[in-house]
Structure formats: C-alpha cells, structure tokens
Amino acid sequence: MRxxxxxxxxxxxVIFGGQDFEFPEGKxxxxxxxxxxxxxxxxxxxxxxxxxxxxxxxxxxxxxVFQEPRLIAxxxxxxxxxxxxxxxANIDEMLARLGLKELREKRAGELSGGEAQRVALARALLxxxxxxxxxxxxxxxxxxxxxxxxxxVLEVCKAGKKTAxxxxxxxxxxxxxxxxxxxxxxxxxx
Length: 190
Prior knowledge:
The chain has a single domain (about 1-185), classed as 3-Layer(aba) Sandwich (Rossmann fold), CATH 3.40.50.300. Helix content is about 30%, strand content about 25%. The protein has five helices and eight strands. It has helices at about 40-45, 75-85, 90-95, 115-125, 145-160, and strands at about 1-10, 15-20, 30, 55, 60-65, 130-135, 165, 180-185. The strands form two sheets. It has a five-stranded parallel β-sheet with strand order 5-6-7-3-8, with helices on both faces. A three-stranded antiparallel β-sheet has the order 2-1-4, with no helix packed on it. Helix 2 packs parallel to helix 4. The longest helix is centred in the C-terminal third of the chain and has 18 residues, at about 145-160. The model has no long low-confidence stretch (mean pLDDT about 95).
C-alpha cells in the first residue's frame, strides 16, 4: 500500500504537508514519533476514517485497534469479539493466546484497561481483513502481557500474510514483532 502526497491540517497545525509513505504488503510497519506528530491521523487516513488530500494506492479492508478499546460495556468479552468477527473465528484460541481465557464471560465494563485493550486486540486479529491498523496497542500492558500481545500480532501477520501498521511511542515497543519497517514522523509545524 502506498500513500502519496498526503496533506492534512487541523486549522493552522499542519500534520502532513505532501508526504509519501510506503507500507510493504505482508510486513509490519511501525510508526514512531512524539505525541501530536500524526501517528493516529495517518492510521485514520489509511483506514478511511478521516478526510485528507492525496492518494492511497492499494487500500484494503482494515481491522482497527484504537487507543481506547471501544468495547460494548454490557456484553461479555466473548460477545464483544463475536459481535464483530462472527461465529467462524476461533475466539477461545485467541483468548487463551492473549491470556484472557478465564475472562471469557466477564462483562467488558468490568475489565481493567490492559484487559480491555487485549480484548480489542483479539477482536482485530480475528477480523477477516488483510490490513491491521493498531494505535498504541501495547501501551497499557505490562511486560509479560505486552510480549504475549506482540507475539500474537507477529504470528497472525505471518500466518495470514497480513499487512500491519502500528503506531508506537518508542522503538522498545517494537521488540518481539520481528523484522519491521520503521517510519519516524517529524513535527512539521505548531
């Protein structure tokens, strides 16, 4: 997938001033940069969730993990995932892989931040889409659960030949994702 000549501004603040980005098929690309440089905005552009000027070539159906989990509070963990991915996905296997098996019937509104984030990640990994757009998916996870989550992302991407674009705060969060492409976003203006 390729993004060409991207332009995006919020009022006077220019986020992208005509940049080009390349996201190799079947690879994981990590976006780095301090807060406010456009990592989330770029993910929203790639997912068709915000307006922009420029071109996206090779856009594909995407699964998105937002910074906040966006779960349905009154539904169980299992129901939240099934609601999006349907019955055909192996939900229980993914829950076990992410250390959530014992939380299967717990209501989403009762989960901790890290648990909710892993449920959102499980939902995206099981969704039938060739593109994963992940916005700081490991930020609320401790080291052990973060390692499990990164391993699950890597495994799903390799097995399904999925392309992933992941916004991260620093390069240390990319450890465990295998060989990744890296894009460092600069601040254009204030």
